[in-house]
Design brief:
The protein is of the alpha/beta class and about 230 residues long. The chain contains 9 helices and 10 strands. The strands form 2 sheets. A 6-stranded mixed sheet has the order 6-7-8-3-9-10, with helices on both faces. Helix 3 packs across helix 4 (about 110-120), helix 3 packs parallel to helix 6 and helix 4 (about 110-120) packs across helix 6. The longest helix is centred in the last third of the chain and has 18 residues, at about 170-185. The structure holds adenosine-5'-diphosphate (2 copies). Belongs to the ABC transporter superfamily. This is ABC transporter domain-containing protein. Keywords: ATP-binding, Nucleotide-binding, Transport.
Length: about 230
């Protein structure tokens, strides 16, 4: 589904963020990129949805080179969840999720219905939380809204950068489990970034271990990695 071949990124200041990266992600698979801060994980994620252009190599989604893809269509096919999800602070929760279907030309009532369904999917009762503002939710709840908004476009691919980073450890494990169930039910292809090896092993079908200098040190199933 997603294939990176010899992908590298050197920033204009000379920083080599990613070096000669080969990575493939199958349809419906969850691949976790893990490693210490600064080893190129976020850069890799952003190259997949073309927020950043690679310096070298090739990135394909469904066999198509992303540099040939229409960026608008690409963003629609790829949901993106980051730690600072940036909900609109002056919009209520339901309205925050509705923005995506509205952008896609859905009617207000269809968009509202879709938003409420998705809030339910991520475990937030729309009757209780839909009319609140983002600051009236806990960190964990805001992350759920971010996931709901990313799912609103029904993208086949989700990219997630430290999606559970801002929440406390107990809520984090709960969100991890819930998200795994959701991902399997919906059959999403997911690439997730974390610096937490436990999270990586717990969630990844396969785990890509990054080392300093944006190099891939290991890539395999959790069982394969733990066996070494
Ligand atoms: P990670 O996600 O693993 O923490 P990043 O992909 O954010 O790593 O960063 C990889 C390297 O690239 C780091 O050394 C970082 O400082 C550098 N870097 C990231 N963004 C930029 C940028 N816009 N300009 C220059 N260097 C950058
Ligand atoms: P979590 O364990 O998910 O981080 P918190 O302890 O932060 O949860 O919040 C617990 C409950 O308090 C949640 O149901 C949340 O909706 C509610 N809450 C948190 N902050 C506010 C706020 N500023 N106004 C109203 N309710 C809030």
């Amino acid at each position: 589904m997603i294939r990176l071949t010899g992908v590298g990124k050197t920033y204009p200041d000379g920083t080599v963020a990613v070096h000669e990266l080969d990575l493939d992600v199958a349809r419906g698979e969850m691949v976790v990129l893990v490693g210490p801060s600064g080893c190129g994980k976020s850069t890799t994620l952003k190259m997949i949805n073309r927020l950043i252009e690679p310096t070298t190599g090739r990135i394909e989604i469904d066999g198509q080179d992303v540099t040939d893809a229409d960026p608008v269509k690409l963003r629609r096919d790829i949901g993106y969840v980051i730690q600072q999800i940036g909900l609109f602070p002056h919009q209520r929760i339901t309205a925050n999720v509705m923005t995506v279907p509205l952008l896609h030309g859905e009617s207000k009532s269809t968009a509202r219905q879709r938003a409420e369904e998705l809030l339910d999917v991520v475990g937030l009762d729309p009757a209780t939380y839909g009319d609140r503002y983002p600051h009236q939710l806990s960190g964990g709840q805001r992350q759920r809204v971010g996931v709901a908004r990313a799912l609103a476009a029904n993208p086949p691919v989700l990219l997630m950068d430290e999606p559970f980073g801002a929440v406390d450890p107990v809520v984090r494990v709960k969100l991890q489990d819930e998200f795994l169930r959701l991902q399997r039910d919906l059959g999403k292809t997911v690439v997730m970034v974390t610096h937490d090896i436990d999270e990586a092993v717990r969630m990844g079908d396969r785990v890509a271990v990054f080392a300093a200098g944006g190099r891939l040190a290991q890539f395999g199933t959790p069982a394969e990695l733990l066996a070494r």
